[in-house]
Amino acid sequence: MIALSLAFVMATAPAAQAEPMPPQLPSAEEMARLTAQVQGSLNKVRAAQADLDAVVRTFEEATDRLTVLAGQVNVATIKQAALDAELRAAQAGVDKRAASVYRSERIGIVNALLDAQTFREFTSAFTLIKAITRRDGESLGRVRDLRADAIKGRADLEQQKQQQQVLIEQLRSQQKQVNRSLKALAQEYEVVRVELDKRKSGFAFPVKAPYSYIDTWGAPRMEGTRYYHRHEGTDIFALSGTPVLAVVDGVIENAGTATLGGIKLWLRSPGDNWTYYYAHLSGFAPGITTGTRVKKGDAVGFVGNTGNARGTPPHLHFETHVPAGPATNPYPILKRVDPLKS
Does the pTM exceed 0.85? Predict the structure, then answer.
């Protein structure tokens, strides 16, 4: 029965509501939307960058291949020139030898053929003529074959080189397209990021870094004394004398001292009438008095441990109050605008 009653109470208990946010900050829903947009744009940028990286890698590989082919074409050109020279030299040698043969040796051989008395003598003279002719022909044929191979090899390399140059031009065009896409996506990302930063920067963090804080909203304070109360703020611990900053543009109200708060002040935002309470200061910043107008980020005081914080580590007790209403937990606001958590 008790279990059923507890289940009924839990089922009918109102759902926890999100803490209200000052108008300078977007709602949790809008913040989530803007954050999702930033992440989506960033993912697009990263994808485009990956595409560009792939194109650049392929371009570099193609350029390296073109360099190799150009070198091979040069080697083939030199080889062909050498074979051309060898062919010319071989042809000149044959011509010279032929002239010599016709002037002397071959005439003698022809005479030998004519003067041959027996078939054996005729056959020997004819075999000698064939040997001379075959040797010259083989020499020229070998050089011509090598030269033909060199010409074909060079032509093949030239064709590959041209194909590689076409590929590089295509890659250049592709790289330009990806660059344009990346530039457009980067601009899209920057627009969304600036909007998010602008919305987040509508509210400054109240203590200059470094600092430390946790959510202590509702924790008991000064138990066993007539000053017992529940904690209605966030204690931001920092070195004594650390500047305390105005969280919004506003007007200083009730700058002075109090039993519990020590050196304290209130900051009111005239546009929306939210108010912010600063306590336990070690002192006010120069020029800060009741009625002083300040800008977001201006120093209004310094971290200390005055009032009932005496004996504790220096810290700022910070409260947020809705217009004409009670305090609301500042921790979600602080976490939202904390530059160290961005």
Answer: no
